[in-house]
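Checked the freezer inventory, then went back to the computational side. Two predictions to log before the end of the day. The first one is the construct we discussed on Monday; recording sequence and tokens without edits.
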Amino acid sequence: LDWACGGETGGRGCFRQTLMEAVALAAGPQLSRTGRRTLTRALVRRLLSRTALAFVAGGIFVSLLRKAHEVWLRVRQARAEFLWRRHVDFSEVQACLLSTEHLQSLGRVEKRTLFVKPIAEVFKNEYILAQVLEAAEKAAISKDPMLMVHLSGEEKWHVLNTCTNHLGSCFAPYHVFFNEARRTQTYYRSAWYCFTLTCHQTESAGRWFITPHHPVGAGDCGILRIRIVMANEQELRDIAAGTQAPPDSGMFNGRHQERWSVFRRFSELFNRQLCRAGDGHLHGQKAPSKKVSHSLGLSAQGDDSPPGIEPEDNAIQRIHIPFPSSKGRGDAEEPTEDQSVAKDVVLFS
């Protein structure tokens, strides 16, 4: 009734009046020409009142929004299916540990997943997130798995320190227990690891352990994704020095061969950083000096590629990881205080 009466109140009386006007208009010959025009204008004004126009405009707007949402969902679904068929997933970040534990005996490079998180949760700053995704695309095109070489100096600083926080949270209780080693007897020891970011896709056979030497099917490949790759510092030293290498029989399969290629490229960046720090003792067992510790991190915040700094410099970061150690393993003596307290703990510089 409100719509028929142009927003006015009046109930049935108003509706009856409008209806009578319409009937009178239909009986045109009995009215004068001026009267018919007046009734026509009155009826049009009532039908095209503000309330009616708002109702019609609102309906059209809602319909357009619904159509736009349906189109967006179809485009999003088509893009997701397209990326899935190409085995591409940049929506998540995977942190993993590479190990040469079974390299000599089995020709395997073991990969252990530490966490998988949405990329927007890891890099919450929209600018840094956009730069990481752009660098990942460049790394995928260049066939060089190292993502960090495509970032500027300041961007490397923020990306590596963000990853340090996420990796460090995986070992948070150990840091608390290790800190108590200064005041009580403990069997916690100190270990140093390095990490960097990669973006690569494994395209060799061996995705299923049931058929380790045969492809799953046509286009057998892993997922192209962004990874935070972590490795023990001593293993990187051994690879860079040439004392750790695949067995004469070769790698277990193509997928482990590609992991070894990533490991070797990682060791090249590590060796490059050691050379810049002036540490040539690749076989050394002791922890690097403070100079090396700082040089294996980034030199300074906001230092955006100063003269003499190449893209491959400052592409890795060190992280201190305490771990519980058994009293056994042939060591009858108690761990010394020098072994049980944190030394040179520089998570980032």
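The second is the one RB wanted added to the comparison set:
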Amino acid sequence: MSVIDLSQPLSDVLREGTKKAHEEVEVSPAASAMLKGELAKEEYVRFLMMLWHIYDTFERGLERHQNHPVLEPTYNPTLLARAPHLSADIAHLLGVTESQWKSHRIHAQLTANGTLPPALATYTARIQEIADSSDPSALLAHAYVRYLGDLSGGQTIQRALAKAYGLTMGGAGLSFYSFKELHSSKPASIGEMKKIKDWFRAGMNKGAGDNMDVKAAVMEEASRVFEFTGTIFKEVDRHRADAKSRVVFENKDDEPRSYPLASVISVILAICVAHFALTVFGFTGERGYEKLVMVEEWLAGLGGVRKPE
């Protein structure tokens, strides 16, 4: 492992120090499926729910420590906060209100018995540990990995998802990937997103200053965040591979359409009898028509109904 020069600005330290970890996450099967638009909609919604728990936890931590000297230069929830957008997207994709999605079957399964999947629980617990510590500087690593990822590769993912799920770029269901301009409320173009990233990097450099201990701690935590992200994708892969966990993406009322068994049996029996009669007796000519009417009346009787007069 190469030694990172901690005398560099923090943004350069992070770029060099997390390069390998970043590349490893990009080649995960779940990430590849998402980039190709091959992730089933229900699996994607479940993934968004996991992201919501992550963002909600660390954004609450950032809010709590917004005046910390390392975190203050990059704290701009109006520009960056993603948890509200995740909530809106989840609700839209499920066809429910934002107040309802946490009680939806998918989220209920995700949080069964009041616990999160191990990978997600470990990730959020680590964020909470930092937020509760005497030095929350490492929260900057979580903001760096997540926000700059959303502003970069997230835009490629958005295009794939828009095509796969029939959504509009930047519209409902994909607002998580949309940002406003740095100094206005207009939707940010790719060029404007680059300006946001440059602003964020400058803020990180200002917050860390020349403190090598802070740089080392943030770099170490950033590598850990990429590892956590990898475990989240592995959780997606595990769930996809578990046939017993797969269910059809249902309507918002969560009630799959079904038919009474008696009706199904009646239809099958009717088809069988009709095939037999057609094969043996035939229904041609005047006598054929009379036989057809007799069979029709008999079938109506089997179904417990009578032909309308």
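For RB: DSSP finds 14 helices and no strands in the chain. The chain has two domains: 10-245, 261-302. Let me know if you want it refolded.
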